[in-house]
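User: Here's a protein and a ligand (hypoxanthine). What would the complex look like?
Assistant: Let me lay out the input and then the predicted complex.
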Amino acid sequence: MADDVKEILFSREDLSQKCRELGDQISRDYEGKELVLVGILKGSVVFMTDLMKEITIPCNIEFMEVSSYGTGATSSGVVKINKDLDMDISGKHILIVEDIIDTGITLSYLVDYLKNRKAESIEIVCLLDKKERRLKDIPVAYIGYEVPDEFIIGYGIDYAEKYRNLPFIGSLKDEIYKK
Ligand SMILES: O=P(O)(O)OC[C@H]1O[C@H](OP(=O)(O)OP(=O)(O)O)[C@H](O)[C@@H]1O
Ligand code: HPA
Ligand SMILES: [Mg+2]
């Protein structure tokens, strides 16, 4: 699996430090508010578990499962909701926890989808931002790192369902996905 990595972009240590920084900032910003973290499966699974441990104020956690990439390296453009929220989010402060924003199609669809549920606020924390490829503009309140226009894997993020269990974030060798 590690042989398929072109370059390690963020180490285990970098990522744990980044979660600490984001957790501190979120804890300050949401002090006294009813915070619900909404992890977007599957990609956000590792980021969500690391980030939530660094948040020092009370919060609920929820998950949605959303997909648009399938086994390819480009967005299908069609966002599929495989699992919706379990709780009523009216009056709550929603913080969507996402691993990567690329075209922006997934997050803009999601925010639109959740808009009429009477949440007090809806914001996004996204670990990685691949700015160069953006097709849909969407404001992201908290961003971990900017990444180059490479196919990213590891720390929950897959190519065709593989590499999610790598403990670091890297780019995938071109020959693996540009066939
Ligand atoms: O900004 P976009 O171009 O929409 O891309 C970002 C989305 O793509 C990936 O999800 P994917 O559809 O691969 O599902 P997964 O999280 O289960 O891997 C990633 O986890 C984001 O949700
Ligand atoms: O670079 C990426 N890697 C994996 N999944 C993704 N979904 C959007 N961009 C990416
Ligand atoms: Mg994926």
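Summary: The domain at 2-177 is CATH 3.40.50.2020 (Rossmann fold).
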